[in-house]
Each structure stands twice: as structure tokens, then as C-alpha cells.
Design brief:
By secondary structure, the protein is mostly beta strands. It has a domain at 21-30 and 44-263: Pectate Lyase C-like. The chain has 2 helices and 31 strands. The chain has an 11-stranded parallel β-sheet with strand order 2-3-6-9-12-15-18-21-24-27-30, with helices on one face. Strands 1, 5, 8, 11, 14, 17, 20, 23, 26 and 29 form a 10-stranded mixed β-sheet that branches. The termini are far apart. The relative contact order is 0.13.
Length: 348
């Protein structure tokens, strides 16, 4: 799924001192690799970035055109605050600088500041490429094959964006991207190029792509928090959590399955040790949430609590397809109009 290089791609390589790495996984098939050993329990999550704090500060740079934005991204350093004026910014953009926990780099704008990636078979509209401690806040990301891609990225905050009209997935964390927060975004109308790849939010990489993305090792995009997002009109899952990922949180999100043509659940969990709590979904094609074992040692130790699933279809609210004894479905989950009921396992 990695797009071909686009001749009009705007690259802004950001040099700085970020304290982590975001990793975005492409979807090119690789040869069958060895199954990973079950991972050890994850360390405690890193502190979440402070929501929106940098964008409340006085900008260090104000931009009004795509060229000015490219220049600002290239020159960013810890503590930079880049403010985008309302308007359309055509092109594709890259951030590679590294901030620090106490001096993040911020890219801020209103909904009327629109990054327009153009053709849905083109490139990534915004790419966090090895970036750390960035805050992306408030603006619109539209068009392009992928909306916001994060590769080898750490400690970043993607907050309050509108991501819409995307060729494949809207927001993707891959290539060992860790400790990132994806919060309070609105995601809609994905999969316009290929419905199979139209996820709203995608964490990690499929095992078939590990040789292309992470040197044939698991894509350990761990300890990421996906919180408070509103996701609709996706052709594939609202959230797809891949094998290889561990210790993440999926909390307080809202999903709609209307228009979902290439998936059968809002959320597909194949990783380990995820906390899936307080989410609300309506109108799924089959099940609300699913857990799968793609490889031995994965699809384990996930916990579902206080989710509300108005499925309006014939499946389960929460379908743990394997390793039922290693995944917990709490009795406080709510199932409405799911033909098979809450779950194939007893709640507890």
C-alpha cells in the first residue's frame, strides 16, 4: 500500500531533537516470516502530551502558502509553533524534526486551514517521518492516498483534526511508532481509492508487510492512545489494531459502520494487551468488535470494558474468535440488536 513517489511531493525535513519515533507501515507483501515469540508485558505508558498547549502560545512562524509551510517545517526546532492562516495548502508535506517533551513542535490551524494532498492515488498528505514530540492541532487534512502517516514516530499528539476524502486510510501509525496520542479527531470518507484499505485509524503493520516495513520483525507500534475520535463513512474498519502491537488504549471513540463495504466490524484487534474502554458504535455489518489471532502469541490479553455496541446486524457485540480465556469481556459492556448477543464467551 505504500504509494509510489509523486513528482509534486513537497518534502520538509525537520531537524531537531525529538524524543521518540513514529512508524508508518506500507502494505507491500513480503515472504512469510517466522512467527514472533509472545512479547513480554509492556512497560507503563509514557505521559501523554499536554493537549493543545503549544498552540495556545504565540506563534514563532506564521504561514499563508504551501511554500512557506514547507520552509517552516524544514526549519522547525524544539519550541517552534507554526500557525497556518485559513486557506488551502496544496501539496504533500513532511515533518522530520524532533522536539522534546518540554519543548514540543506545534503545527496549528483552524478547520479553514486545509492541507490538500490532491489525487487519491498520490502520496501521503502529511507525513511524520521519524518525528518526535510534534503537536498537530485543529486543521483539515484532505485528499492524497493517505491522510496523516507516522513512521518511526514517538511522543506525538494528533489532535482535533478533520481528516476526510482520503484514498486509503486516514491516520496510520507504523514502523515502531510508540507513545503517540491520536485524540478528538473527526475522520470520514476513507477508502475512495481502494475500499479494502479504507481504515479510519490503523495501528502497526500486517505481518505480511513486516519484511518491507520493519526488517521482517514485528511492527511494535506500542503504547499508543486512540481517544475521543469520531469515525464514520469508512469502507474498512474504523480502527484496525495489527499483530505486533502491544499495550495501547482505545478509549471513548464513536464509530459508525454505515458505508462499511470491506470490513465486518468497527474495530479489529490482533495485538496484545490493549485496553478497549468506553467506545460507542452503531450499525456494523456483522460484529461490533472482533479479536483475531493472526500469528501464535498475538490476539491475547485484551480487555473490553464499558463499551456500547448498537450492532443492528446478526453478529456479536464483541466477538473474540480465539483464545477466549486470554481476553476479557466485562459484563458492563452493552449490546443492542446484536443477533448473537454480547460475546461468544461469558462476560466477567
Amino acid at each position: 500500500m505504500t504509494p509510489a513517489n509523486h513528482p509534486g511531493r513537497r518534502l520538509a525535513r525537520l531537524a531537531g531533537g525529538l524524543a521518540a519515533a513514529v512508524v508508518l507501515a506500507g502494505v507491500a507483501a513480503c515472504g512469510a516470516g517466522p512467527g514472533p515469540a509472545p512479547p513480554s508485558p509492556p512497560p507503563a505508558p509514557a505521559p501523554a502530551p499536554t493537549a493543545g498547549s503549544a498552540c495556545t502560545q504565540k506563534p514563532t512562524t506564521e504561514v499563508r502558502t504551501s511554500d512557506e509551510l514547507v520552509e517552516a517545517l524544514a526549519g522547525a526546532h524544539p519550541g517552534s509553533v507554526i500557525a497556518m492562516a485559513p486557506g488551502t495548502y496544496p501539496g504533500t508535506f513532511v515533518a522530520s524534526a524532533q522536539g522534546t517533551p518540554d519543548k514540543p513542535i506545534a503545527l496549528c490551524g483552524s478547520r479553514e486551514a486545509i492541507l490538500d494532498g490532491g489525487a487519491i492515488d498520490g502520496d501521503y498528505t502529511f507525513h511524520l517521518d521519524g518525528a518526535a514530540y510534534w503537536q498537530l492541532s485543529g486543521f483539515t487534512v484532505r485528499g492524497g492516498q493517505k491522510g496523516v502517516m507516522a513512521d518511526r514516530a514517538q511522543g506525538n499528539l494528533i489532535e482535533g483534526l478533520l481528516v476526510e476524502g482520503i484514498g486509503d486510510e486516514a491516520i496510520h501509525l507504523r514502523q515502531n511508532s510508540t507513545d503517540n496520542v491520536v485524540r478528538d479527531n473527526t475522520v470520514r470518507r476513507t477508502g475512495l481509492r481502494n475500499g479494502k484499505y479504507g481504515e479510519g485509524i490503523y495501528i502497526g503493520s500486517a505481518e505480511s508487510n513486516w519484511c518491507d516495513q520493519t526488517n521482517c520483525e514485528p511492527d511494535r507500534s506500542d503504547r499508543n492512545m486512540i481517544e475521543g475520535n469520531t469515525i464514520s463513512e469508512t469502507t474498512a474498519e474504523s480502527v484496525d489494531i495489527k499483530e505486533g502491537t502491544t499495550g495501547g488504549t482505545l478509549r471513548g471513540n464513536t464509530f459508525s459502520g454505515i458505508g462499511m463495504t470491506d470490513a465486518d466490524s468497527w474495530v479489529d484487534v490482533k495485538g496484545n494487551g490493549w485496553q478497549i474502554t468506553g467506545n460507542v458504535g452503531t450499525d456494523s455489518p456483522e460484529d461490533g468488535f472482533q479479536v483475531h489471532e493472526i500469528l501464535d502469541g498475538w490476539g491475547l490479553d485484551n480487555t473490553f470494558e464499558n463499551n456500547s455496541a448498537t450492532v443492528n446486524a446478526g453478529g456479536y457485540a464483541i466477538n473474540v474468535t480465539k483464545n477466549k480465556e486470554r481476553n476479557r469481556v466485562g459484563c458492563d459492556n452493552r449490546s443492542v440488536d446484536a443477533g448473537q448477543g454480547l460475546s461468544p464467551e461469558d462476560c466477567g
